[in-house]
Design brief:
7 helices; mainly alpha; two-stranded antiparallel sheet
């Protein structure tokens, strides 16, 4: 009788533990909805690039002198046999500033997010070549950009609304 009683208690404990794990799992899934996670990724990736981008401008399409100086005198590409100066530093600063403003806006709006994330992934690779010691944060940016490229904008986005509109109009 003791072995049966003991076995029943173990089975009840296992069932209780399984039920608790399943409840915790449901709670976590309710909190970490894919659309919420995708929105958080988009915002988290947009912030550092936006903050860098606004520092490069003195007005609409007018680069700050500091931005041009950075790409002319300070920033170097750390490639084998290098470091090397950036080619066409004024053009590079302009393109960098445009990307750092445009891509984050697209991410926040949820418009063309795979394109925007791919652009920021390419920029991250260039930033890594420029500041190789920053790899821990650059790896984080790359992971976020890759997740967005792979999984898209999510339901909280203009991309999703456009897709639903065109899907509904096909019916």
């Amino acid at each position: 009788m003791t072995a049966t009683h003991s076995s029943g208690a173990v089975d009840a404990s296992k069932t209780l533990a399984i039920n608790l794990v399943e409840r915790a799992n449901r709670l976590l899934m309710a909190v970490a909805r894919p659309s919420l996670v995708q929105l958080a990724l988009r915002l988290a990736l947009a912030v550092p690039f936006w903050r860098s981008g606004i520092l490069k401008w003195d007005g609409f399409l007018h680069l700050s002198d500091t931005a041009v100086t950075l790409f002319t005198d300070e920033f170097m590409l750390h490639l084998p046999g290098g470091p090397y100066s950036f080619p066409a530093p004024t053009v590079t600063a302009f393109l960098s500033g445009c990307g750092e403003i445009t891509f984050p806006i697209l991410l926040v709006l949820g418009l063309g997010v795979r394109f925007a994330a791919l652009g920021l992934l390419c920029m991250t690779a260039i930033v890594e070549l420029t500041v190789p010691d920053g790899w821990p944060i650059h790896l984080t940016w790359a992971a976020m950009a890759l997740a967005i490229v792979a999984y898209g904008a999510g339901r909280v986005s203009i991309d999703y609304a456009i897709a639903r509109f065109f899907h509904a109009s096909k019916r």
